[in-house]
Structures are given as C-alpha cells and as structure tokens.
Design brief:
Structural class of chain A: mainly beta
Number of helices of chain A: 0
Shape of chain A: globular
Oligomer: heterodimer
Distance between the termini of chain B: 39 Å
Largest sheet of chain A: 7 strands, mixed
Helix content of chain B: under 10%
Helix content of chain A: under 10%
Number of helices of chain B: 0
Order of helices and strands of chain B: EEEEEEEEEEE
Chain lengths: 108, 123
C-alpha cells in the first residue's frame, strides 16, 4: 500500500498571502494525484486531479504541481474561505486509493 | 441539483451491523461508479471500496473484505453500504462519493460527495 505523507501538519498564513502545501508518496504515483479541501462538519471537496487539473468551479488561485513522488498545492492569495484542512490522495496504485493525513491551513 | 443524499446517523452495539444509504439525484445514477470512504475521529480519510452502479460489480479494500457489502437499487438511484461485526474502531463518518469519470472507466478521484453518515459503535 502506498503511504502518502503531507507537510506541514499545520500551516499558519495571513489572508492575501501564498500558501504552499506538500505531499509525498512512498513510491511513484505518476501524476495520479488529487487534492481535496475539507471544512469542519463538511464532506471533502475536490480541488485538483491529475496533479494539476482544477476541478469544475475551482478558482484559479488554486494550483497543483508535481509528479512521481513529490507534489505541491499552492493557493496564491488566501481568502478567508480557504482556511480548512487539505488532503492529497493517490489513485495510481489501487485498490486502495490512499490519502495523506492532512494539512490544516489556519489564519495567522 | 446534483447531489448524493445519505441516511441519518446510527448508533450500534459492538457485533451489530449497519446499513447506510446514498441516494443520487440530478444526474444519471448508472453513469458513474460510487465509492465509499470513511473518516474516523482525528484520522485520515480511508477508502473502503466501490460499486459499479450499472452491473453491481464491487471492489473492496482488503481491510474490509468479508465485513462490508455494497449494493445498489437502480430503480431508486440508491447505493448501500453494509458493515457487519462492528467494533468501536468502526466509529466514523461514512461517505459515499462519485467517481470523476464515466463508467466503464473509474479514476479513483471523487468529484461529488454525500454529506456523510456518522456511525457510532458503543456498548
């Protein structure tokens, strides 16, 4: 089973600033990686798939990059509604598709 | 409105079974695979498996094999997840989620999620 590791566990950023979240896989997942946003009491929301493709309706301030074992989610100018927990997920080697442990993005 | 609507919260005793429903609306139910994902308190999301809504074929995560059963009722546009032999570690929020791509393919990324069903296992 592929293990997904996200860093940092918590990221404190001021509104309007850039946030960079990292995700690493224990073996190559090519570009078969997705990013999700989850707010308290809500279901996850798909942001990015295939490492860099924005899902329908996702603002352009969200961007994804990477391939192989190293991936990055960048939020270019943080809005108040962006403070949430973010998960990466690989779907290259499955079952099972595995998720990272999450990065909590909090207001600085 | 395109959505997945799940059944309400459940409280079960250890050893019991639970069945969660997931009703699709606003899209053609038989066009997409439905996955089940759970999230225990403070834990990462955990994929449980999928069901092909057209033919009912299933794939289960090895962790849940033998304890979980996915079914669907195409006339009601509804998928079901039944988990048996419940233990305290099964306390979690259970989500159904739609695959991003159309059947016969399945990508394994999820673009539409139910609101979640909280299952509590306690004596």
């Amino acid at each position: 089973e592929i293990v997904m590791t996200q860093s940092p566990a918590t990221l404190s950023v001021s509104p309007g600033e850039r946030a960079t979240l990292s995700c690493r896989s224990s073996q190559s997942v090519s570009r078969n990686l997705a990013w999700y946003q989850q707010k308290p009491g809500q279901a996850p929301r798909l942001l990015i798939y295939d490492a860099s493709t924005r899902a329908t309706g996702i603002p352009a301030r969200f961007s994804g990059s990477g391939s192989g074992t190293e991936f990055t989610l960048t939020i270019s100018s943080l809005q108040s509604e962006d403070f949430a927990v973010y998960y990466c997920q690989q779907y290259n080697n499955w079952p099972p598709g595995t998720f990272g442990q999450g990065t909590k993005l909090e207001i600085k | 409105q395109v959505q997945l609507e799940q059944s309400g919260a459940e409280v079960k005793k250890p050893g019991a079974s639970v069945k969660v429903s997931c009703k699709a609306s606003g899209y053609t139910f038989t066009s997409y695979v439905i996955h089940w994902v759970r999230q225990a308190p403070g834990q990462r999301l955990e994929w449980m498996g999928w069901i092909n809504s057209v033919n009912g074929n299933t794939i289960y995560s090895q962790k849940f094999q033998g304890r979980v059963t996915f079914t669907r009722d195409t006339s009601a546009n509804t998928a079901f997840m039944e988990l048996s032999s419940l233990r305290s570690e099964d306390t979690a929020v259970y989500y159904c989620a739609r695959d991003l791509v159309l059947i016969p393919a399945a990508m394994g990324a999820f673009d539409l999620w139910g609101q979640g069903t909280t299952v509590t296992v306690a004596s």
